[in-house]
Amino acid sequence: MSKDKVQIFDTTLRDGEQVPGCKLATKEKLVIAKRLDVLGVDVIEAGFPISSPGDFGSVEEISKLVQNATVCGLTRAVEKDIEVAAQALTYAKFPRIHTGIGTSESHMKYKFKATPEQIIERAVKATAYAKSYVEDVEFYAEDAGRTDNVFLARVLEEVIKAGATVLNIPDTTGYCLPDEYGAKMKYLRENVRGIENVILSCHCHNDLGLATANSIAGVQNGARQIECTINGIGERAGNTSLEEVVMILKQHPYLNLETNINTQLLYNTSQMVSEKMGMMVQPNKAIVGANAFAHSSGIHQDGVIKNRETYEIIDPAEVGVTESAIVLTARSGRAALAYRSKKIGYELTKNQLDVAYQNFLTVADQQKEVKDNDIHRIMEAVQIQAGALA
Ligand code: KIV
Ligand code: ZN
């Protein structure tokens, strides 16, 4: 059975770049955009053109550069925003305008001081106006996660009539539970006229650590686009992490969903974005963290040395990591010490290993990690020479 495609909409350069301290110069954005295009993302959200002349310039330059992906510019439901975005996207091979408005009670009441009818009117006007510039118009219902489903369905039905091609259902505040977000997608699929002609999109924030789970629940319930960022960077606790959703779909083939991403480029891309944005990747970050394929306890190390699959569900090579790491600590066992020692030239007999291991434990109790140079010192202390087969 052929798999359904889930489009990957990368917003590292827009929602990701909103993080304080992560601002990039156009030159750096171009390097990242080029990498995202090679990585295989379907859509690159390049920026918010009206927000500053710098952002306008970045969207324009990215539009000229990108060869495969759709290039998207964000706007509010404001005519001037849309005009400026259309202008910035002039050179894009596949341009998309991403326009929208808040639809939750609190957004309507406090942000827009508008009635639900006025919100619908503004949403329709913005969509139709964007459509007069480009064929591909994505509409976002900001704070859809906390929007009443019946009202949300009404808004969406109207923007479909006005020409929207993609409907973004943002959980802007990261509030939803996965079953709730999935049920929202299902409700919209079943209750919005014309929904079969458009793509439903997940855009989840990570305030409760649920962005990835919510996005997966979304695609399990019919969404066919996920909006995400490299390393999950983004406002507050971040956005859905691209590498996580891509690998979840790959590792669970029975979901019958696939993406265009070349997963072997994930680790390098993560490092590149981290370096350019000056945002360190937490060591325990799934898929791309320094410890994602590192094993330090004796029981786990023994298993991984015998067969990698005992404690790893992903072959590190699949995401561009050269190999699993066996990290030596006071929790490591003989198998790990023998394994690491062999890698650096010491083939130990059982007796030699026993002696070396006692010495190793003394060293390991005094420091966080035992490195290769410590092993050389241990071997010297117990008079074992590299390459000396017993
Ligand atoms: O989180 C959000 O609602 C957004 C929209 C502007 C798409 O980023
Ligand atoms: Zn967002």
How does this model look, in words?
The chain is 42% helix and 14% strand. It has 390 residues and is of the alpha/beta class. The strands form three sheets. The protein has an eight-stranded parallel β-barrel, surrounded by eight helices. The model has no long low-confidence stretch (mean pLDDT 96). The relative contact order is 0.10. The chain has helices at 26-39, 53-65, 79-88, 105-111, 116-131, 149-161, 178-191, 211-220, 242-251, 266-277, 298-306, 334-343, 350-366, 372-381; strands at residues 4-5, 7-10, 43-47, 70-74, 95-102, 136-142, 166-171, 199-204, 225-228, 257-258, 294-295, 325-326. The chain is built from 14 helices and twelve strands. The longest helix is centred in the last third of the chain and has 17 residues, at 350-366. The site of 3-methyl-2-oxobutanoic acid has 8 residues, from strand 6 and strand 7.
Proportion of beta-strand residues: 5-15%
What is the mean predicted local confidence, pLDDT?
96
Compounds present? 3-methyl-2-oxobutanoic acid, zinc ion
How far apart are the first and last residues' alpha carbons, in Å?
Answer: 56 Å
The structure class reads: alpha/beta
How can the largest sheet be summarized? 8 strands, parallel, barrel
Shape: elongated
| Poorly predicted parts | none
Q: How many alpha or pi helices?
A: 14
Order of the strands making up the biggest sheet: 2-3-4-5-6-7-8-9
The secondary-structure element order is EEHEHEHEHHEHEHEHEHEHEHEHHH
Rg estimate, integer Å: 25 Å
Helix content class = 40-55%
Count of β-strands: 12
